[in-house]
From TrEMBL:
The entry's keywords: Transferase, Tricarboxylic acid cycle
Family of this protein: Belongs to the citrate synthase family.
Catalytic-site annotation from UniProt: 270, 328
Pathway assigned to this chain's UniProt record: Carbohydrate metabolism; tricarboxylic acid cycle; isocitrate from oxaloacetate: step 1/2
GO molecular function, a single term: citrate synthase activity
Protein name: Citrate synthase
GO cellular component entries: cytoplasm
Annotated organism of origin: Dichotomicrobium thermohalophilum
Reactions catalysed according to its record: oxaloacetate + acetyl-CoA + H2O = citrate + CoA + H(+)
Amino acid sequence: DSGMFTFDPGYTSTASCKSGITYIDGDKGELLYRGYPIDELAEQGDFLETCHLLLYGDLPTREQYEDFENRVTYHTMIHEQMSRFFTGFRRDAHPMAIMVGVVGALAAFYHDSTDISDPMQRDIAALRMIAKMPTIAAMAYKYSIGQPFVYPRNELNYAHNFLYMCFAVPCEEYKIDPVLARAMDRIFILHADHEQNASTSTVRLAGSSGANPFACIASGIACLWGPAHGGANEAALNMLQEIGTVDRIPEYIDRAKDKDDPFRLMGFGHRVYKNYDPRAKVMQKTAREVLDLVGVQDDPLLQVAQELEKIALEDPYFVDRKLYPNIDFYSGITLKALGFPTSMFTVLFAIARTVGWIAQWKEMIADPDQKIGRPRQLYIGPARRDYVPIQDR
Ligand code: SDX
């Protein structure tokens, strides 16, 4: 019956759902969360109000904001027994591997939130996930460098608290420049949602079977890890470091164009954007601010990135294919300047994207037309044949 189906590898022309959360116009390079342009949210808003917007459909009033903040911060701790999970991993474990395991294990600790038939429990699951992701991520980081875990401080805002849990050390006064905390917050806003990207589609597909929300988010984290998706921020920085100096750029541009070479420009190209990724614009500006503040105005990596972008945007190969820098191109430089090792980059993406994943999951579960996701295939294997006993083969 293979002739009955539309063949659409990579779903380039299939809408998998109806959604009222995020809108992208790829030709214009426009991104809206619930109607609000991404640059306005990133420049004027904060991450927690963006979470409220994505989850509940509107920006909060002051009163709603305070209530939401209280409801999120109530859940920032993880069960103390979970802290033992980390010590089971090798110190050199990739933090994304730890994230997949620990987030999946949340289902074993918060049984009440696995009841997806109860809208209140679904909401609590969302709050728990948003609240606990920074704590889990910071613990993975602290474990990797052999430092004691730092518990959340709820009077700090979301991004600031995360930086605190990562970079505070016992017996030393902890201080961070508000510009850096603001940059972290902005990075979270820029990554918060992006309609039906690979990891969000994974979360929806997992959720369509009725799987619990923690398992669904763990599957999203696993998908995000790939270098063609969220892993590109780590890959992009590794690439810039490998290129090293501006004079070596042409060699790498040639390699990216060579179809016999698997190398691609990391942080370049996008399935939907055939114009500049609007998030990359804000990201580039943020990178500049952070580098100026931490005193590395002449960071060779930024020079390489800017020159690479310039050369690529003038090259007919990239122009013809409408390949522009995406969000991951400048985020790595910024995260490095904030003090994170490359292995943490995709983890930071996962923290931010959790709200998008869970908002999309909630939207799907509440949709009366929701069905289990079950694509078909074009079968290309052997036709029916008879079993041959092993001695006769
Ligand atoms: C994210 O989907 C989302 O919304 C994702 C995301 C989100 O917020 O969730 O925006 C986050 O994942 C950003 C993307 C990060 N990935 C990278 O930066 C990795 C490098 N880029 C790619 O591999 C690629 O561009 C993708 C995966 C992003 C998009 O792949 P598509 O849509 O399948 O496009 P394609 O591979 O078919 O490319 C079309 C053409 C091809 O050439 P031709 O065969 O037509 O000659 O463009 C070429 C590709 O070879 N091409 C590149 C290239 N990206 C595409 N050539 C060189 N370098 C590149 N980076």
